[in-house]
Each structure stands twice: as C-alpha cells, then as structure tokens.
C-alpha cells in the first residue's frame, strides 16, 4: 500500500504540494483563531460530588466570594484612615454592574476578618458574572485593571485571578521556550542532517503539523471545552515528531539513492520501509494519547485531543508532503552539504554495530545492570504523594501567589476555607446549627460556619488543622460525607476536589492503561509479526517510565531540583501530571521501539541471523534514534524554563524518559534481551501466523 503511495506521490507531487499550500493558508488564517476559544482550569472531575457542590453554589447562592480576592495595601495608611476607605470603596463602586454580581468588604460587613493584623491591608471578596470559572476568567480579564485603587498597592488573587495568571504565564513561557530552543535546533539540524536543504525539511513538516493541530483543536472547541494547556503539548510534539519522522525517512531515502539510479524507485522503497514504520509509529503514539480521552478531566482530555491531532497531522504530512518534497529534490536533498558523509554509513560496521556485538557477548551482565539502574532511578516513585494545582504553581512574586501568602500570613482567618459544604432543601436554621455542631466534632476540623445563603441553600465553610491537601485532610472530607445532614449536603472546595480527583483517576487509569496496552500490542503484532517482541516492548517502556517517575518525585516532591529550576516544592505531585507523562512518554518510547525493531526485522527476514540482525539494525538506527532523541530533548528541555511548576515537571519527566529510553533502553537493554531470547523473538504459532498474514501492512506490494 505504501509502496503504491510512494509511486503515486512521486508522479503527482505537484498536486500534493499545492494541496498542502492551500491547507497551510486555511490553517494559518482560521486554525490559529483557536486561542480565543480555549479555557483555563479543568483539573477537576465534572461528575464528582465536589463539582456538584460548586454547581449548586453557582446556581443557588452565586459565584463564591473567594473566587476573586483583591488585596489593598498601604505602607503609611491604615484601614481606619478615611482616605484609605474612600480609595477602596470609590474604586469598587465604579466597577461595571453587569460584570460584578457582588462585593464584600470590611466596610460592608464590619468583620475584622477582612483587616490585616497591622491594619495596613484589607481585601475585597468579589463575585463576578459567569456560569463557571472559565467564564468568570473572561469577565475578569475584561475589567482587571479597574480594580486598581489610587494611592494604594492593588494585588489580585483567588481562583479566577490565578487561572488568568496561569494562562498568561504559559503564553509567555511558550514564546520563551521557542526563542531558546529554535537557534539550538537550527544548528543541530544542519549538523545532524548534514546539509542545509535536508535540515529545512523537518521544519516544514513541523509547521504544517502545528498549524494543522491548531485547526483540529478549533474544530473540537465547537463541541467540547478544550484547555489552554493543549497548546503546550502541540508545540512541544509538533516539531519534535516532525524531526523524528523526517530524520527516519530522509536517512532511508539517502540509503536507497545509494542503491539505485532511479529517484522514483528510491522514494518508492523508502515509503515501503521507513514510511511503513512512520505510519505504525504515528498510530501507536496517537493510541497512547487516546487513553487520555477516557478521563473526565478537561485538562487530560484536552491534552489527549491536542496530542492525537498533532501526531496524526505529523504522520500524514510525513507520508505525503515529505515524499512530495523529496520527489522535487531528488539527489539535491544533500544540496548545501556542510558535513561529509560518515564512513560508517557506507560500510555499515560503525560504532553502533560494535556496541551491539559488545552487548550481545555479555547480554546477562548488560540486562541485569541496566535493569538495576532503571529500578534505582524509579525507587523514589514508591513514596509519591499526590496533590492538586494551587497558587504555588505560579513563580515566586506572582501576583496571585503574593495575595495568597499575605492572606495566610497577615489575616486572622487566612484565605478561603478548604472545604465548602452546601446544604440544600430549605432546611430550618436550628437543624443547620445542629449540623454545624456535628461538623465541628469531626477530628481535624477547627471551625464550621454558615457564610452565605441563597435559594433553598446554605453555604458552610469548614476550616481544617494542617495541610488541606494531606491524607488527613482528605480523610476529613470522607468523614463529613458520612455525617447525617439536614436536607442534602454536598462537600466541595479544594480538599474535596482533590479527594474526588484521586478517586476518579484511580477508577479510570486501569481501564485507560488496559486500552492502550491491548491496542498497542495489536499494532506491534501487526508491524513485527511476533508475540514476544510486543510484550517485551511493554516491559521496556514500563522500566523507562519508572525512571522518569522516580526522578520526577525526587526532583519536585522532595524538592531536590527546586533551587536549580526555580520553583517551590509543595511536598507532593499534582495528581494528573503522572497520567499525562505516562501517555506522552509511552507514545514516544514506542516511537523509538518501532524504529529499531522494524529495521531489525528487515535484517532478520533477509538473513535469518538474529544476532547479525540486531547488530545491523542497531547500526542502521542507533545514530538516527540518538539524534532524534537529542533534538526532541532540546525542544522538551526548553519547557523546563517555564514559570509554572507543573509545566517544568512535565518537561523534566519527558526529558528523562526520552534520554533514558534512547540510551540505556534502546542501545543496551533491547539488544541484550533480544540476544537472550534468540530465535524466540520471532516465534509465532501457526494460527497467529495466518492472522498476521491477513492484518499486516507489508513492506512491498
């Protein structure tokens, strides 16, 4: 099939290039408008009890007063000064009434809770219009400058402001990551591809993939909510996978040009071999992202949508646009060569061939040694503690984080209560008071009071002793949910949301892992014609992922990378991030696995010599995989400069996974285990042999 595709594209390459040009124009004009349709937040389970509590508060009481907290400070004046009061109340009175549904201040309540201990600061709790947090973030973005009071320091915090600041920070980080990585990539591309012309090919594929993914994402926003963080995954992988696929196809095209005088035949053969591998790889990586679609959290689903979109567009561009460009260039693909060809390319007996034979002479030592190293790197993961995204994800000095710190440090009651219980059913006050008594009697609860009422509902703020994200705090939520309550009670707030998030992830993750594992096994079976190699690939991936997770816990939860990377360790790991890293790293690992094993399979089918096939396959792909991993690592490493701590975490986790997978796993562990298995690598019972004959996409027509 792909062989025929290669012939057709070579014959009709002008049509392919014209179609690609039209697509790029449409994507650049229409697809890039997706940014206005993306939403913030999305880390919670929308079907959970805490989400129901939030919805009831919005419907029956109004947006939470702590959604937006505006802090006013003065070094010389106190809240008792009429000038201080007039500056705050006058500013708040001028806010547009259609955007602001309510304001609570010291002067409207007389409550000392709104005044700092030194009386030089106060805050206003503001309710904005909007049905949910993303809608209120848009309202906030329109009027945030209107909160500035003359003569006072004005700082904005709370859920809405922090979400807006996270969005703004990630946009800045994205631009900075591109500025850092692009010059390095350009130099490395020229060095690795050897010529200026060939180095430009992955950039062309990457641009098409990113624009195409933005277009697909905009289509998705017409039917579902999509998180703003999906842009990060598209930008990170769009160019990275374009480099992987281009490097593999261009390298094979050069090899085939050395074997034939026909550029058409070289392209046809390239598509039948390297193109086949790229096709399987793209589908496998997309399947890994597909597992994220099973999760109800908007953040994870959006990452899945963005990942699937960019991988599939990358794959299609590599199998259509790239061959069309090679058809135009032919042997001129090496034009403007800056480095001579390596001798090993011509002889096929280079350093990678010698490394493979070294590994296979001592396979047990290499297999055991590498496995011990990977397990040691992964050991910290056994002590992981899960948390949720909070204001500490922002860099130190960020406005929302400064507000949260000031509330905790300077005000008697600190910030918003970590648990909000909404009681519905028009319950009489005496019954509510009795319920408050039961809440106060729960171990770990330091206070419970009705803070607001609305249509047949009362809002109870529950305060805790200790970290609201700790296991003890989550135990309090579970205990509260078992208490007899008047009417119907729903527990929400920060602690309840984390409790529900962990429950949701624990429920969905096994199903998602089973789905990805089974489908990936089937694809590898179709690609490789073996049942042991797909199983071994899954085990190899688990080992490399364990190393990435261990470094993630060691560096972020335990704080060992806090100084080097400039973030505040919270003592836990945001619960959804390991799931995301699992999906992305699993897909990228399978990418390299297929590149290596497909070439080994070619040699095995040609010679029937397992040891020689492994050595030749590693020689043919070792440098390619290492170079591809290096280029992808540059792209990923740039994201560790982000000001948002969980974006740093994603960057570090994926960087470790890529480096470990391309070195310890592919270069050492895979050859060692294949040597130990010998001919059993390719064992296939007769019934499965017949099945494979029907489902396999063959290398030649």
TrEMBL record:
Alphabetized Pfam families for the sequence: MMPL
Sequence intervals crossing the membrane: 15-35, 184-217, 229-253, 274-295, 307-329, 364-384, 512-533, 538-557, 577-597, 624-640, 646-669
Start and end residues of each SSD domain: 203-328
Presence of the UniProt keyword Cell membrane in the record: yes
PROSITE patterns: SSD
Keywords, in A-Z order: Cell membrane, Membrane, Transmembrane, Transmembrane helix
InterPro entries recorded: MMPL_dom, Mycobact_MmpL, SSD
Membrane topology: Multi-pass membrane protein
UniProt subcellular location: Cell membrane
Superkingdom per UniProt: Bacteria
Similarity comment: Belongs to the resistance-nodulation-cell division (RND) (TC 2.A.6) family. MmpL subfamily.
Name used for this protein in its record: MMPL family transporter
Organism name: Actinoallomurus spadix
Lineage, highest ranks first: Bacteria, Bacillati, Actinomycetota, Actinomycetes, Streptosporangiales
